[in-house]
Design a protein that fits this description.
The complex is a heterodimer of chains A (309) and B (343). Chain A is 71% helix and 0% strand. Chain A has 309 residues and is mostly helical. In chain A, α2 (22-32) crosses α13 (275-303) and α8 packs antiparallel against α11. Classes of the chains: A mainly alpha (309), B mainly alpha (343).
């Protein structure tokens, strides 16, 4: 790991092949976590299905078929239909695009804010650090779900008028979920900065005349990325669950946009007569989140060099 | 978090003499309360800013009502202080909030605090039972999994835990309703607060309608807590003092329960305490699925009806709970770990 001293210079020179780079080593360790490795394949397949599925499976998400209302899975409708006879496979595939997009975009928001706050707090001492950490604690003690609901309810119409209904609600949900999930990343980055900024290689960079922004960007930040990547994985899973929860409470996407949570919300009143309707979107959320959780677990093992496998 | 830093610093200190312990506990509590105050102010400021920026207007309904003349509406606005500058409204709101005057619901036409006190007991009962269930599952399973890491028991428990926190609570809730209410017809799926039966029948009815919501909430919690217990017992069990306890010839049971578990519980207590208030918020979903008349469904109703005073009060109550539990975590921490002195 960075900052440690090799036992002898010659030993280090002896094994120079490129395959021992940090990332190759991490990948090798990741592959040893079998569940995580297969989950990565699973998630890749899911993403591919969601991206390419609607191009191959050409049934419209709003094609109404009154002949087959609430029909169970069949050859014509592989996952069955809803109360208006709309094909569920098409809707689950389309909804997956939005659910996954919300998950990844919220993660990007959370990580960008978190890394920025954590890095600024970690490199500057004194009142800046104290103030930023106070804000972080404040956000941690806000009740998350109620605040999300309140924010979305109040600002939904304003943004809708500003940038259109679909983009507006997407932006709002992504920003609000991201805005409430950056705190763990900020604290992790700050803690990493605190230990890394005292290390010899940072001192060496400073002694060579590197400016503080350069030291942060080139030396400290890249070395603190491991835990951030793990936090990011967890954020994707949490954002997907949060989005579906919001949709389930009726405060997510509008009815004409079938995200997985929205599908479940619509299906919940037909549990007794059309079980398949709620089962498939629920399974989709479950498989996605489970795969991402396992990947996160594998990354934790792979990126934490202190961990003994 | 300041509390966590305080804890770490406190670890290095020595135990105070018993005589001064009680007065220093008072001091400690006072100081913690003083630390909590700015957070409380910050939270109230955030809440108020959100509401002040929000476009919704509680007077919209009156404005569109032709029976109310505009002069009356304006007079009402002025009387309620809605035209004052923002900072005045904030100070006014904060002072009445602290005095326990939480206002008057726009929709239900009764005091907000009455409304909240009506709903809170149900939520507390459901959440409390869920916590007990979660602890009853997570503690033994976590400890057993840690005592034999990577055994088949550990693998099954860990896999189930991953499944548990990958399933959204509302989906588990729907599956439970499908299985136990619709297919098997064992349990009711609508929660009723007004059960007329008395004595044992009353308890039985409450038990029956509580089983599903409590297990949905409790098992989801147990899944993540079990992972905490496992990893923190694993951390402790390798330490020298545990080996010492074993080499003294103590039975494995005593070593685990008396020596390892007590220290392993320290980080778990913090995490559990910090999660509790989020739990009250998270109960919104469970209350919505099973139609439990608790504080969460009150919040949803208030949001959907633009009932600002109720939204403010419920969110404020939930935030106060966070700070309260934070404080409680600190006190429990000190009790579990005598190395921490109440400086």
């Amino acid at each position: 790991m960075a900052g440690s001293t090799p036992a002898s210079v010659i030993a280090e020179l002896g094994k120079q092949p490129a395959s021992t780079s940090l990332w190759a080593e991490a990948w090798r360790r990741f592959k040893r976590h079998r569940l995580a490795y297969w989950s990565l394949w699973m998630l890749g397949l899911l993403v591919l299905a969601v991206l390419l599925g609607p191009l191959v499976y050409k049934v419209g998400i709003n094609d109404i078929d009154f002949q087959a209302r609430l029909a169970p899975p069949s050859w014509r409708h592989p996952l069955g239909t809803d109360d208006l006879g709309r094909d569920l496979l098409a809707r689950v595939l389309y909804g997956g695009r939005i659910s996954l997009a919300v998950g990844f975009a919220s993660m990007v928001v959370a990580i960008v804010v978190g890394v920025a706050v954590g890095a600024i707090a970690g490199i500057s001492r004194g009142w800046v650090d104290a103030a930023l950490m106070w804000v972080t604690d404040l956000f941690l003690s806000l009740p998350q779900l109620p605040m999300l609901l309140v924010l979305i309810f109040f600002f939904r119409d304003g943004l809708k008028a500003l940038v259109g209904p679909e983009v507006g609600i997407f932006l709002l949900i992504v920003l609000v979920i991201g805005g409430f999930r950056w705190m763990p990343a900020a604290r992790v980055v700050r803690a990493q900065f605190f230990s890394l900024r005292e290390k010899e290689f940072v001192e060496a960079a400073r002694a060579l005349g590197a400016s503080t922004p350069r030291v942060v960007a080139r030396h400290i930040l890249p070395n603190s990325l491991g835990p951030v990547i793990v936090a990011a994985t967890i954020d994707v899973a949490a954002a997907i669950i949060l989005e579906s929860t919001l949709s389930f409470l009726g405060l997510g996407f509008p009815p004409d946009i079938p995200t997985w949570g929205r599908l479940l919300f619509d299906a919940k009143d037909y549990l007794d007569i059309a079980m398949h309707w709620s089962l498939f979107p629920g399974l989709a959320i479950f498989i996605t989140v489970l795969a991402i959780s396992f990947i996160g677990d594998g990354l934790r093992d792979a990126l934490d060099p202190r961990r003994v496998m | 978090m300041p509390t966590a830093r305080g804890r770490l610093a406190g670890r290095a200190r020595t135990v105070p003499a018993p005589a001064e312990a009680s007065s220093s506990l008072g001091n400690y509590l006072l100081r913690r309360l003083l630390i909590a105050l700015p957070s409380l102010l910050g939270i109230s400021l955030v809440l108020f800013t959100v509401l002040a920026l929000a476009p919704g207007d509680p007077f919209e309904e009156l404005a569109t009502n032709p029976a109310v003349p505009p002069e009356v509406r304006l007079a009402l606005r002025a009387q309620l202080g809605l035209d004052d500058p923002v900072w005045q409204r904030y100070l006014h709101w904060l002072s009445s909030m602290l005095q326990g005057q939480w206002g008057f619901s726009f929709v239900s036409r009764i005091d907000v605090d009455t409304l909240i006190w009506q709903r809170l007991p149900v939520t507390i009962a459901v959440v409390g039972a869920a916590i007990l269930l979660a602890l009853a599952v997570a503690l033994p399973v976590g400890v057993l999994a840690a005592v034999r890491p990577y055994s088949w028991f550990d693998r099954i428990a860990s896999t189930l835990a991953f499944v548990g926190f990958s399933l959204p609570t509302f989906f588990i809730g729907l599956l439970f309703i499908l299985l136990f209410s619709i297919k098997l017809d064992w349990l009711p799926f609508v929660f009723r607060a007004d059960i007329s039966a008395t004595g044992w029948a009353w308890w039985w009815e409450h038990f029956k309608q509580g089983v599903m919501p409590v297990s949905v909430l409790g098992l989801a919690l147990a899944a993540s807590w079990m992972r905490y217990v496992r990893s923190s017992v694993l951390d402790v069990i390798r330490l020298d003092y545990v080996a010492t306890a074993r080499s003294k010839g103590l039975s494995e049971r005593v070593v685990i329960v008396k020596h390892a578990l007590r220290n392993a519980l320290l980080p778990v207590v913090t995490l559990v305490m910090l999660q509790l208030p989020q739990l009250f918020g998270g109960a919104i979903v469970t209350e919505q699925i099973f139609r439990i008349p608790g504080i969460g469904s009150l919040l949803i109703d208030a949001i959907l009806r633009n009932d600002t005073p109720v939204i403010m009060a419920v969110t404020f109550v939930l935030s106060v709970l966070v700070i309260l539990f934070n404080l409680l975590a600190d006190i429990l921490y000190g009790w579990l770990d005598p190395r921490i002195s109440y400086r």
